Amino acid sequence: xxxxxxxxxxxxxxxxxxxxxxxxxxxxxxxxxxxxxxxxxxxxxxxxxxxxxxxxxxxxxxxxxxxxxxxxxxxxxxxxxxxxxxxxxxxxxxxxxxxxxxxxxxxxxxxxxxxxxxxxxxxxxxxxxxxxxxxxxxxxxxxxxxxxxxxxxxxxxxxxxxxxxxxxxxxxxxxxxxxxxxxxxxxxxxxxxxxxxxxxxxxxxxxxxxxxxxxxxxxxxxxxxxxxxxxxxxxxxxxxxxxxxxxxxxxxxxxxxxxxxxxxxxxxxx
Amino acid sequence: xxxxxxxxxxxxxxxxxxxxxxxxxxxxxxxxxxxxxxxxxxxxxxxxxxxxxxxxxxxxxxxxxxxxxxxxxxxxxxxxxxxxxxxxxxxxxxxxxxxxxxxxxxxxxxxxxxxxxxxxxxxxxxxxxxxxxxxxxxxxxxxxxxxxxxxxxxxxxxxxxxxxxxxxxxxxxx
Lengths: 270, 174
Prior knowledge:
Largest sheet of chain B: none
Radius of gyration of chain A: 21 Å
Largest interface: A-B, 57 and 50 residues
CATH superfamily of the largest domain in chain A: Rod shape-determining protein MreC, domain 1
CATH topology of the largest domain in chain A: Thrombin, subunit H
Oligomer: heterodimer
CATH architecture of the largest domain in chain A: Beta Barrel
C-alpha cells in the first residue's frame, strides 16, 4: 500500500509535465476557453457583487457615458498633431475585475459585447494594453508592461518611430527608436503608432512620458525608459476599441452629417 | 467530508479570490499566492494521494482561470508536489512544527514556480522571483498553518479524539 501512496502523486506530476509539454508545442486554447467560461463568470459575479454592494450599480449609465467621452477626447487629442486619421472609435466600457502576476488583467466585457482578440484597451490616462483572448463574458488583456508585449510607437513631437516593450519588474516601458540619431529627452510624450483597422493598437493613444534616456549599447538604436500614463497596478474602468466607426470607416462616401449624433466615440449599442 | 468540501471550495474559489481580490491589492513587492497557501493549509488533513490531487486540481484551476497567461501545467506541477509533501507531513505535531513545514514548502514551491516561470514563459528573473511575493506567501502559509494547528484542539476539547489524533505516528494510506 505504500507504493499506492506514491503512485497517485507521481501520476499527477506526470500529467502536469505532459500538460506543460503539450501547451508549449500547441497552446491548449480549449482548456483556456473553459477556464474563461467557468472562472471568468465567477470573477465577474464577485466583482459585480462588490460593485453592487458599494452602490456603484447606479453609476453604470454614467460610466458608459464616461467611456464615450473618453474616446471622444482621445480622438480629438489625437486629431490635432497627427497626420493620421483618428475619426473616432466604436467603443465598449469595461471594468477590470481580475489581476495576475503574468502582466495580464481580466475585464468584464467579452465576445458577447463584441470584444475580440487584438483590440486596443485604454483608460482615462492612456494605453492599458491589448485583448489577448476573449471569453463569453470576460476577456484577458495583456498590459503594455507585460514581458511579451511590443507596441509600435511614436514620439508625439518629432513623429520618430520606435518600438515599446515591457520592463515588468519595474512597471516601466522601454522605447527603442529606429533612428539612432533621433532627438529624445525626458518629458517627451510617447503615443501609439497604430495599425490597420486599429488592431491591435489604435493610432495616437498616449502611452507615457520618457523619464530617462539610456546609454546606447550600440549605434543602431536609441533606447529610453518610459513611464506609462495609465496606473497599470490600480486599473478600474477601461475602454475597449472595437474598431473604427462604421460611418468613419469609409471616407470616400460623403455621407450627410448625422444630426444629433457625435462622430467621435459613438458607443456601441447592444 | 469537511475536507472534501473545503477542497472543492479551494479549487473553485481560490483562483477567483486570487485574481479578483489579492492580486489587485497594492501590496509592496507583489502579493501572496492564496491558492498555494490554501493547499498547504488544507493538505495536512488529507491522505498523501488526496493532497496531491487537491494540489493538482487547484494548480490547474489557477493555470486556466483568467487572466492567467502562462504555460498550462506550471502551477499544477508545483502545487501537486506541495500538496503531496504537506499531506505526508500530516496534521500532527505542534503548531510550531506545522508552521515550519508550511513555511519550508511554501518557500520551495514559490521558488520552483518562479524558476519554471522564467524558464517556460520568459518571465524576467527579477519578476519571477520577486522577494515580496516570496515573503508574503511564506509568512502567510506559516501563519495560517499555525492557526489551524491550534484551532481544532480547542474545538475537540473534551470530546473523544478522532482516530487520526489518537494514533499520531500512524502513516495514513492513500
